[in-house]
Amino acid sequence: MVPLLMAENGLLARRRGHTELSVYLSKIAGLRPVTAICEMLDAETYSALSVAKAERYARQNAIPFCERTGPCRVCKGTLIMNIAIVVSDFNEEITSRMLQVARERASLLGLGVVHVSHVPGAYDMPLVVDHLLRNPGIDAVATLGAIIRARQSTTRQ
């Protein structure tokens, strides 16, 4: 294992690789900027696994697969991302505030909110997310919802 460090002078300032991107995504997710990266190798050729083979492997093993087609957009050393937000109208008094905060936070991070979809509830989100991620102008989708757990019953069954 070889430790990799991102340059302190900003995202993608010198390199534009997956290390910098993974650290950046960790930071904007509010996580510690620590990631584990591995390269998948083809067992037959010992070279990097092709996208088609990686996608097939992911599908066979129920692993989420994400492919970024085309180069990442970078401006002045900052990653440019267009995001969509899917927000549940269930518990709207809470989710409307969540949407407001998400828009504010996206703006502070330099993310462009290019689309907002409202859905009745959390069960309706996956179909909308799947549709939005097929749009090449959308780099990521955030989902917002609030499920409030009912009080537990005092009777035992």
From TrEMBL:
InterPro entries to which the protein is assigned, alphabetical: DHBP_synth_RibB-like_a/b_dom (IPR017945), DHBP_synthase_RibB (IPR000422), LS (IPR034964), LS/RS (IPR002180), LS/RS_sf (IPR036467)
Identification of the protein by name: 6,7-dimethyl-8-ribityllumazine synthase
Pathways per UniProt: Cofactor biosynthesis; riboflavin biosynthesis; riboflavin from 2-hydroxy-3-oxobutyl phosphate and 5-amino-6-(D-ribitylamino)uracil: step 1/2
GO annotation (BP), single: riboflavin biosynthetic process
Reactions the enzyme catalyzes: (2S)-2-hydroxy-3-oxobutyl phosphate + 5-amino-6-(D-ribitylamino)uracil = 6,7-dimethyl-8-(1-D-ribityl)lumazine + phosphate + 2 H2O + H(+)
GO molecular function: 3,4-dihydroxy-2-butanone-4-phosphate synthase activity; 6,7-dimethyl-8-ribityllumazine synthase activity
UniProt EC number: 2.5.1.78
Known role: Catalyzes the formation of 6,7-dimethyl-8-ribityllumazine by condensation of 5-amino-6-(D-ribitylamino)uracil with 3,4-dihydroxy-2-butanone 4-phosphate. This is the penultimate step in the biosynthesis of riboflavin.
Lineage: Eukaryota, Metazoa, Porifera, Demospongiae, Heteroscleromorpha
UniProt keywords, alphabetically: Riboflavin biosynthesis, Transferase
Family membership noted in the UniProt record: Belongs to the DMRL synthase family.
Signal peptide start-end: none
Domain of life of the source: Eukaryota
Cellular component annotations (GO), alphabetically ordered: riboflavin synthase complex
